[in-house]
Design brief:
This protein is an alpha/beta fold. 41% of the residues lie in helices and 16% in strands. It is built from 12 helices and 11 strands.
């Protein structure tokens, strides 16, 4: 087995490595009735939001820019309605990656998608949910916390969090239990500013994340917005900081990974799952 995968799976087993899921983590997830793939990456989200039609080239550059345009023209509610219809109201097939991760009983997972796959996998497991928020007046922090008791979510304050429970961190939002998203440029400006200031990470996560390493699954590093969210969320990481599974990384991604001391692995989510099956098989054989 690839030595990088050996270290990744060992770290996942002992809790020292944290998964960070990007759009590619949803590869293969489809609407069973239509066969259409779930919109997850920037281009597919823009096309879905615009009834399958491309937007102007400057808006096609990145989903937050396109969402900002829709927000300015049709109001914020139009963006929320689209994301609710996509991620809350449309049935999707089950992701093999999310299922495997849930089986590992990991203490901390970061999901930079807006879907509910991870929450569905933890539907029978008590956990703490962290949801990123932005542009909230009169609120000191840029997150909401929820306790899940195995049946339903209840809002909770930092001081009341049971840190022994698994933590699901959804920095860009989710429709459950309350619809909330980081989507437009204005959202990201506010959220990233507060991430840099330390107000978008709960105190118990700031303690938990010290010295952790990360494995990026399905997250490319060629967009500044994604890079800024990632680098601030992993602040305090170990040295080296972990691995990024990116097939055929660009020079920009190579330079960024080198700066953050992250090892690039020329592989994708499918390769990870194949290696995971081999890893589980070796453990059973032992």
């Amino acid at each position: 087995m690839n030595s990088a995968f050996d270290h990744i799976f060992s770290g996942l087993s002992d809790g020292s490595v944290v998964p960070y899921l990007g759009p590619g983590a949803l590869n293969g997830v489809i609407n069973p009735s239509t066969g259409k793939a779930i919109p997850a990456d920037s281009d597919s989200l823009i096309l879905a939001m615009n009834n399958g039609q491309p937007m102007a080239p400057k808006l096609m550059y990145e989903f937050p820019r396109a969402a900002m345009n829709v927000e300015l023209k049709r109001g914020r509610n139009a963006v929320n309605k689209f994301l609710d219809a996509t991620y809350r109201d449309t049935p999707w097939s089950t992701s093999a990656l999310h299922g495997w991760l849930a089986q590992q009983k990991l203490p901390y997972l970061i999901d930079a998608n807006r879907d509910t796959q991870l929450q569905q996998q933890y539907a029978h497991t008590p956990h703490t949910l962290i949801v990123g928020v932005a542009r909230i007046s009169g609120k000191e922090y840029r997150f909401r916390l929820f306790h899940y008791d195995g049946t339903s979510y209840t809002p909770i304050e930092q001081e009341a969090v049971d840190t022994q429970l698994p933590i699901l961190f959804k920095p860009l939002g989710t429709p459950l239990p309350i619809s909330n998203y980081i989507a437009s440029d204005a959202d990201f400006v506010d959220y990233i500013t507060e991430l840099m200031g330390g107000f978008a990470i709960p105190s118990f996560v700031k303690r938990l994340r010290q010295g952790k390493r990360y494995v990026l699954l399905g997250q490319r590093l060629n967009r500044d917005t994604d890079r800024m969210v990632f680098s601030d969320i992993i602040f305090g990481a170990d040295t080296p900081a972990g691995w990024a599974l990116i097939p055929h990384p660009t020079d920009k991604e190579k330079r960024y990974a080198e700066r953050l001391n992250i090892e690039l692995v020329n592989a994708d989510v499918a390769d990870f799952l194949t290696a995971a099956q081999a890893w589980n098989g070796s453990l059973q054989a032992a």
